[in-house]
Amino acid sequence: MDIVAKIAEQKIREAMERGEFDNLPFHGQPIIPEDLSAVPEPLRMGYKILKNAGVLPPEMQLKKEIVTLQQLLAACGDAEEQVRLRTKMNEKTLRFHILMEKRGHTAASRQYRDRVLQRLG
Fold first, then answer.
1. Residues 6 or more apart from 10 whose CB is under 8 A from it?
2. Which string of DSSP letters, residue by residue, matches 8-55?
3. What is the pLDDT, as a whole number, of residue 84?
4. What are the residues whose beta carbons fall under 8 Å from the beta carbon of 66, sequence distance 6 or more?
5. Residues 6+ apart with CB under 8 A from 9
6. From CA 104, how far away is CA 108, in angstroms rounded?
7. At what angle do helices 58-75 and 79-102 cross, to 10 degrees?
8. In the structure, what pLDDT confidence band is assigned to residue 106 with cuts at 50, 70 and 90?
């Protein structure tokens, strides 16, 4: 064992003796592995790092923004503001659909998937 590993082990043992690991979130609970089977192998580590950093994939970020705009639009009473919000929401919706088309997720493929799932389940 090299010197760095020995120092790391010693620091971990000292922290354990001081009880620094006793009140961690999920202490004593099993760790449930994430299903990353849909993510290509070379991209999994990058996705995991981005997820842990709170970064959303572009399509999820757009969906989140669309939902927020829908909520703002529902609560808005000013006609001019409603037009501005609706325009912004339409732009984001269009960008979302273009992005999904580029990735092969079209309305037709969703309908086909839904029919297959209905027949299977």
1. none
2. HHHHHHHHHHHTTTTT-TTTTSPPPPP--TTS-GGGHHHHHHHHHTTP
3. 95
4. 89, 92, 93, 96
5. 1
6. 10
7. 160
8. low
Give the CA radius of gyration of the chain: 23
For 62-79, b where at least 16 C-beta lie within 10 A, e where not — what string?
bbebbeebeeebeeeeee
Mean pLDDT on 102-112: 70
Coil, strand or helix at 102: helix
Structure-block tokens of residue 117: 């799932």
The Cα–Cα gap between 9 and 6 comes to: 5
Q: Residue 18 — very low, low, confident or very high, per pLDDT cuts 50/70/90?
A: very high
Residue 95 backbone phi and psi in degrees, to 5? -60, -40
Question: What whole-number distance in Å separates Cα of residue 22 and Cα of residue 97?
Answer: 47
- The mean per-residue pLDDT over the stretch 31-38 comes to 80
Read off the pLDDT of residues 68-95 as tens digits, 9 standing for 90 and up.
999 999 999 889 999 999 999 999 999 9
